[in-house]
Specification:
Order of helices and strands: HHHHH
Domain Methylamine utilisation protein MauE: 7-130
Pfam families: MauE
Membrane topology: Multi-pass membrane protein
Strand content: under 5%
Number of domains: 1
Largest sheet: none
Helix content: 55-70%
InterPro entries: Methylamine_util_MauE (IPR009908)
Number of helices: 5
Structural class: mainly alpha
Distance between the termini: 39 Å
Subcellular location: Membrane
């Protein structure tokens, strides 16, 4: 099997699995997750909103990545989500807040913020690779409607 084709078939499922794993962990241990978010240097109201919003967004991203038609949007939104969470981590690491909270909100419990940032960056670049493969005709199975070399309708 062609390596690009294999990569493109496995990548969305891998990213969706990561998102579903994280959301499921957050939902299964709701009280601990909410407590961890309330420990972040964010307004209490925002932390409470994020408690419900973050896992929901992760499930939405997983769904977008699993379906062929929505996959390009899923890759793009995954990049955006990882950029936002990575931006927060950079603020924490640059000591922009009054205190450094625990890094227990992400996918990896109690790992240093640097590890969380490396993981987020890896997910971002995998999503970018998936998007670029899809959009730049690098995948031979990309349907014509998604390729940049497709013929435009004649007007």
């Amino acid at each position: 099997m062609h390596i690009k084709r294999l990569f493109f078939q496995v990548l969305p499922q891998l990213l969706a699995g990561v998102m579903l794993y994280t959301a499921t962990r957050q939902w299964l241990d709701w009280e601990a997750f909410q407590g961890q978010l309330l420990n972040q240097p964010l307004p209490k109201t925002l932390s409470l909103i994020l408690t419900g919003l973050l896992p929901s967004v992760e499930v939405l991203l997983a769904g977008l990545l699993l379906f062929e038609k929505s996959r390009p949007l899923g890759f793009a939104l995954t990049m955006g989500f990882m950029s936002m969470t990575s931006g927060y981590i950079v603020l924490v690491l640059s000591e922009a807040f009054a205190y450094v909270p625990c890094s227990c909100v992400g996918m990896l419990d109690n790992q240093p913020w640097e590890v969380q940032l490396a993981l987020n960056s890896s997910i971002f670049f995998l999503a970018l690779a998936g998007y670029r493969i899809r959009e730049n005709r690098l995948c031979p199975d990309t349907p014509a409607r998604y390729r940049q070399d497709r013929e435009l309708p004649k007007t």
